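Q: Given only this backbone (118 positions), what sequence would you predict?
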């Protein structure tokens, strides 16, 4: 776990780690949504377990790192939004509406402001 205590040396590594964290969070949400609303029987149990594991991993990584997560929040949100839209489209067959696309553009702009501000 010591490797999680160090700050990423390269910005690319940091972005990759945030991308992985965002994917883990959204995947966990998607598994739980499937378990609650779509699955039954063994599939429900497997979805619940996968969701719990994914969200636990997300929480562990976010809380074990010594990163200033508040400062990284802008890029995290920018990465989280498209991941959420891809999962919504692929797993739940929910196309993005015009308001969602416009909102995503605003989210990206806000994320850039948070990331680039001192």
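A: Predicted residues:
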């Amino acid at each position: 776990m010591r490797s999680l205590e160090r700050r990423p040396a390269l910005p690319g590594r940091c972005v990759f780690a945030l991308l992985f964290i965002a994917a883990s969070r959204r995947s966990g949400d998607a598994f739980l949504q499937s378990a609650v609303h779509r699955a039954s029987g063994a599939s429900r149990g497997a979805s619940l377990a996968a969701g719990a594991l994914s969200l636990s991993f997300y929480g562990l990584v976010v809380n074990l790192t010594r990163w200033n997560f508040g400062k990284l929040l802008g890029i995290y949100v920018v990465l989280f939004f498209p991941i959420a839209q891809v999962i919504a489209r692929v797993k739940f067959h929910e196309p993005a509406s015009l308001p969602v696309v416009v909102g995503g553009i605003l989210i990206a702009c806000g994320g850039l402001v948070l990331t680039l501000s001192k």
